[in-house]
Each structure stands twice: as C-alpha cells, then as structure tokens.
C-alpha cells in the first residue's frame, strides 16, 4: 500500500502564481522519502496541501488509501507534521504543549501523559517539562516540534526542514532518532536543503522544480548516475612530487593532500598499492563533494534549458 498518493496536484494562487503544475507522487508505506528542490520550487506548498494547511486548486490526495476530500479527519489523524517555523506558544509549559496536542486528536489523558513522557525523554527534554518553552534553545525547540508531531503516533511523519539552523551534534542525534522511527514502521517524508542529510537517510527521492517533479528515483540508483567522484586523501607524510598513477586523474593540492578522480565501478586498490610502495600512509579519505548535490545541481540546470 502507498502511504501517500498524489495525482495531478495543482495550486494556482489568487494573484495568478502557478505554484504546482500538476504533480504526481507516490510514497510507499515504510519509505523514508526525500522531496528536494530550491527555494520557491513548490516543496512547502506540496507539503502544506498534503497536511491540509493549504487549499489545493485541483488534484487528488490519499493517505493510506483514505481520500482527503472524502475522509479528511481520518486521513489527518494518520499524519504528523513538523513545519519549518516554530508555531507553538513559547509561554506555555513544554508538557502542556504536548498534552494539548494530544487533546486535538481525542487521546485519553492517561495515554497522553505516557506519550508525553516517552517522546520528551526521547528528545532529551523530560527534565525541562515544567519550564516555559521560551527558555529552550533553537535546537531544543526543534526537538519539541518533533515530539509534538509524534503525540498522535502518526503512520506518516512529514518533516519540513527539521534540522535547519541546528548544530552538527543535534543534527546527527535527530538522524539517529528518525532512522530508528522509520525502522519501527513510520513512513517519513523529508524536505531539506542539506543534501548530505537526504543521501544519508532516504531510500527514495523526488526533485521538484518550478512546480513540476523533474526526477523520481531510488536514492542509490540516482546517485550512481554520477560517473566520476573525486576523493580527497590526506597523507601521513609529504608527497614531494606528483607521481604517475596509471588510469587515475589526480593532482596534489599541497604536499599532503592528494585529489583523485575515480570513475564509477573503478577499483581503488591500485592507488592504495602505489602509496604502500611509496611507504605513504593515508590519514583520512573523503568525497570532495556530495554526489547527490552534484546531481541535483545538474538536473536543475538541465530543467532551465
């Protein structure tokens, strides 16, 4: 079953702006799905319509088989939403924000308190439950938003830029939590400007540009379209001259930094063997650029032609 099915979705604003030109999108149950696009591409409009925060012009949307035009309350009960902007009262107690959220879904008080403790603990906020939300840092407010979205234990969780502006440590904490949540069966749709985040977390991806889906693919299959990747090797001791390494385009950035271009499916073992022969160890190795970012930029550029 599809967790989400979108057919011929269009959005035209009163001023004539065409935000969505008729997109089709299917997200399978249990998927971790990335919806990517530049600012103004239509991501937030799409997410807003799916979560019934924005009125569509035409099109059909179903959530786990429930048509949002005919079974709106039931469809909404299956969705949890984490928007970009902080949208709770910062003068409320943290615990009250979650209990009130549960009340919107008719969740009994006892269960609401159990879930509040569960999700505040998961987000590292339990000890602060009786404080007013304005005392939280920006990153903690992001965590509270996620905890609030989980109070109805949704089958579909929609995250619109959930790690925007948070530090690296918190970002990785949230990655681990979301991966665990997905492994437990929750379908997740993620929009993000951090393409490393999408590549790390998501199984499938759609790219939207100017209100149209220009690419839908399995994440790994999409990334494998990048024919060449550049590896940056930090060496343990200086390489005083640029050696000849057969079948590899390479260059010295400085005495201990070597860049090597590797074609898809090309083995890197001969490069390692060469360095061993030269008695040169490798301190670290990384990709110079994110492969998804490289492909994303290429697809957006092609769509403008």
Could you explain the architecture of this structure?
- This protein is an alpha/beta fold and 305 residues long.
- It has 2 domains: 2-78 and 154-223, P-loop containing nucleotide triphosphate hydrolases (Rossmann fold), CATH 3.40.50; 228-303, Alpha-Beta Plaits, CATH 3.30.70.1560.
- Helices cover 33% and strands 29% of the residues.
- The strands form 3 sheets. Strands 6-7-8-3-9-10 form a 6-stranded mixed sheet, sandwiched between helices.
- A hairpin with a 2-residue loop joins strand 12 (249-254) and strand 13 (257-263).
- The chain starts with a strand and ends with a helix.
List keywords for this structure.
alpha/beta, 10 helices, 6-stranded mixed beta sheet, 305 residues, Rossmann fold, Alpha-Beta Plaits, 33% helix
Question: What topology does this entry show?
Answer:
Blueprint: E1 2-12, E2 18-28, E3 32-36, H1 43-50, E4 58-63, E5 66-67, H2 72-77, E6 79-82, H3 94-104, H4 109-122, H5 138-149, E7 156-160, H6 168-183, E8 187-191, H7 195-201, E9 204-209, E10 212-218, H8 219-223, E11 228-235, E12 249-254, E13 257-263, H9 269-277, E14 282-287, H10 291-303
Parallel strand pairs: 3-8, 3-9, 6-7, 7-8
Antiparallel strand pairs: 1-2, 1-4, 4-5, 9-10, 11-13, 11-14, 12-13
Helix pairs in contact: 3-4, 3-5, 4-5
If you compute it from the alpha carbons, what radius of gyration comes out, rounded to the nearest whole angstrom? 23 Å
Q: What name goes with the CATH superfamily of the largest domain? A: P-loop containing nucleotide triphosphate hydrolases
From the coordinates shown, what is the CATH architecture of the largest domain? 3-Layer(aba) Sandwich
| Estimated share of beta-strand residues | 25-35%
The shape is globular
Report the uncertain regions.
none
How would you state the average pLDDT, rounded? Answer: 88
Helicity, in percent?
25-40%
Tally of extended strands? 14
Q: Which structural category do the helix and sheet elements fall into?
A: alpha/beta
Which CATH class of the largest domain is shown? Alpha Beta
Q: SSE order in H/E notation?
A: EEEHEEHEHHHEHEHEEHEEEHEH
Order of strands, widest sheet: 6-7-8-3-9-10
CATH fold annotation of the largest domain = Rossmann fold
